[in-house]
Structure formats: C-alpha cells, structure tokens
Amino acid sequence: MIEAIGLGYSYPDGTTALDGVDVRIERGERVALLGPNGAGKSTLLQVLGGLIEPDAGSLHYFGETTDADSVRDRLSVLTQNPADYLFNPTVREDLAYGPTQQDAPQRDVDRRVEAIAERLGLSSLLSKPPFRLSGGQQRRAALASALTVDPEVLLLDEPLSNVDAANRSEILDLLAELSNDGITLVTSTPETELLPHLADRVLLLDAGGSVVASGPTREILTDTELLADCNLRPPQVVRLFDGDDPIPLTVEEARRRLDGS
C-alpha cells in the first residue's frame, strides 16, 4: 500500500526529523510508529500521507504512483488537532466535506454521513457546531470526517491523545472494527501500553529519527533493553511478568495466565 525508501527530512532550524527511514506497509496491516517525543513520528506520518514533502528518499503508493495527491481518495490522514478537520458550521457539514470534494452524488454523501455518524455515536450531534463538542466528541468527529471518504489506508497521529477512558475504549473498538473491515491502519504513538490494542507490527524510532527496529508487537514490547535505549518504558504488565515465557502484553492475557487458562 505504501513503500518508502531512504526518507529524510529536517526542520527549518536544521534539526533532523527523519534519517534514512525505510517503511513498507502491506494491505490490511495494523502498524504502529513508536518512539519517544521528538522522534519524528508525526513528521513520518505526514510524509507518508503526502502532507509534507521529504528532503530525501522516495515514496510509492499502491504500487502505482509516487504522487500522493493522485490517490487522495484512497488515503486519509488524521492529525493530532481535530480543528484540522472540523472547520464548518456544523458537524454534518464537516463529515460531508470530504465526499463532496470527491464529487460524490448527494444521496451517497448523505448515506456515508449518516452511517459513519451512527457508527461513532455522533448522530445526535450532527447539527451542532464542532466547537461546542467536548474534546472526546471532537476527536470522534474528526475521525468520522476522515472515514467518510471511504479510505483504504488510514494514518492516525496519536488518535487517543487527551481522550478520556470512555472515549478511548470506543475509539479502540472502532479501530478494531475498521481493521476487520480490511482498512490498513498506521498509527503513531509514544504509549507502549496502547500498542497491543493498536498494532500487530511496530516500527521503533529513536530520538534521531531513525528506525532502530521493526517487528511484531510482542517482540518489540518484550525487548526491555531496546525500549530503554529509546527512552521508552514497556507496558506495566510486561514489567510485572518480565522473565516469563511468553510474557503477557495485556491485563487480559495476564489474567488468563494467572487463571491457568
């Protein structure tokens, strides 16, 4: 779906954000970009989504093109700031904006908006101004607006940042459903606790913007020395069961281990 080779990018002050990054995203994968704050995760996500031009390297989309704009209908990027998506007078108009720009028939636009709004619990909020929503509601509305274009690939920049427990659980459940529907998910996060729920494969970045490891989520999260080298702490469950074989990654896995099931 996306292949990047040798990506490089520096900020205007000369600070290196990405240094020779290689990424390959296969159809239907759930991939997480993990790293400490300042590791270039958000920058990498925006480069992969075609929002930022890299200083070096190449990008290919769907095995067809190097032009992200030409596949914009198949690719959606959700940035950390909901305001990037919520700028119309009502939530309904925000959700309709993407498919309208695709010149979708009005009947199809309405169908998409209603379906996505119901799926994310936004049906009663469609007539409200986005600025009147709570933080969690804004996050869900922004995600809904990214989904109404019916993307094949969804790139999410810390989608659970500053989200309360109830909304966090709802968003995690929705992302699991989207994955089951075949949507390819690429998510950036500094939170190791979330990874077992977000990704099957992890790209680990260090503070210099380099990929230092890539592998299955379990493999990365149980390598405590590797995480420590990147100034990251493994999930609490991993720390508690360090030395077991295999090490549980979630509370649910730990409970089954203790129950002997």
Give a topology summary.
Elements: E1 2-10, E2 16-25, E3 30-34, H1 41-48, E4 56-61, E5 75-78, H2 91-101, H3 106-119, H4 135-147, E6 153-157, H5 165-180, E7 184-189, H6 195-198, E8 201-205, E9 211-216, H7 217-221, H8 224-229, H9 236-240, H10 251-259
Parallel strand pairs: 3-7, 3-8, 5-6, 6-7
Antiparallel strand pairs: 1-2, 1-4, 8-9
Helix pairs in contact: 2-3, 2-4
Domain ABC transporter: 2-232
Pfam families: ABC_tran (PF00005)
Subcellular location: Cell membrane
Structural commentary:
The chain is an alpha/beta fold. It has a domain at 82-151. 35% of the residues lie in helices and 21% in strands. The protein has helices spanning 41-48, 91-101, 106-119, 135-147, 165-180, 195-198, 217-221, 224-229, 236-240, 251-259; strands at 2-10, 16-25, 30-34, 56-61, 75-78, 153-157, 184-189, 201-205, 211-216. β1 and β2 form a beta hairpin. The relative contact order is 0.16.
Overview features:
three-stranded antiparallel β-sheet, 10 helices, globular, 261 residues, six-stranded mixed β-sheet, alpha/beta
Quick structural summary:
The mean pLDDT is 90. This protein is an alpha/beta fold and 261 residues long.
Shape category: globular
Run of helices and strands: EEEHEEHHHEHEHEEHHHH
Helicity, in percent?
25-40%
Uncertain residue ranges: none
Main pleated sheet = 6 strands, mixed
- Mean pLDDT over the full residue set: 90
Q: What is the count of helical runs? A: 10
End-to-end distance: 38 Å
Number of strands: 9
InterPro entries: AAA+_ATPase, ABC_transporter-like_ATP-bd, ABC_transporter-like_CS, ABC_transpr_CbiO/EcfA_su, ECF_ABC_transporter_ATP-bd, P-loop_NTPase
Membrane topology: Peripheral membrane protein
Subcellular location: Cell membrane
Family: Belongs to the ABC transporter superfamily.
